[in-house]
Amino acid sequence: MFKELDPILHSQLRLAVISLLISVKEAEFTFLREKTNSTAGNLSVQIQKLKEAGYIDVVKQFKDNYPQTICKITKPGIKAFEEYVNNLQSYLGKG
Amino acid sequence: MIQQDKPMNEQESLLIIQQMIQTAKQEQKDDGKGWILWGWLLFLASVFTFLNLKWEWVSMYFFWNLFGGLALALLLFTTVRFLFMKRKEKVRTYTKDLCEKLNIGFFIFLLLIIFSINLGVSPVKGFALLLGLYGFWMLIHGTMLNFKPSIIGAFVTWGLAFAGLYVQTFEWTMLLHSIAVLCGFIIPGHIAYAEFSKIKSENKG
Description:
The complex is a heterodimer. By secondary structure, chain A is of the alpha+beta class. Chain A has helices spanning 12-21, 29-36, 40-52, 75-94; strands at residues 26-28, 56-63, 66-73. Chain A is built from four helices and three strands, in the order αβααββα. Strand 1 of chain A pairs antiparallel with strand 1 of chain B.
């Protein structure tokens, strides 16, 4: 029996963001935008969805008079990502 | 550009995960510039001290004092840059954090050895301990970055550190020191720089 892939993570941009955040301690919004090659608007929306799901923490602050958005994966986010990868492996194993 | 609405299959999901993890891994690479700079400075200080001991141009520790002055200026510059530029980093990795702590520990221990040499510990034995410390830094740093040249350099340096305990003259100590920094800092530094530049140019292309 195959488990359904987490719909929050089964989206290109959200999966890319989580995959980046799983490998680092924390990352700025601009870093995520550069590495995913996405638009600021689209990325903002997807980050908000990940935040609402409790998968990432988002801290907005000012540094040297410039706004800065820092994202960090949470424990539920790590767990969800691990489950997603496990489920993905079972699907790929089937094929 | 990643298209949010485009449906994706399992293979594409896996590809995104692989690509992004690979991208993040590149942030953990060291460009080797620091090893090259410190390595060459240490190498030149020890080689010139060795030559100076042979031909007696200036006082015995002249080149190490010169190195000390340069090192202090560089350390000051690095500290200022660390304190003020750190905020501009777009990403923080666990490896970078660990590297920073390793460097702090390294410099404190380095100062302890330098102080002990100035307080009466024999320079020959003191430099052997320094080599031991270099080896420790090389091993941990090389392991963190999964960089074999540094790990090999660590064992070579430790071998030279043990040899350093048995030499009788400072000339030999300087010779061993120069070989150690060549194997442990300069060669790995240039390899790391070449690898880093290659990845950078690939990413641009």
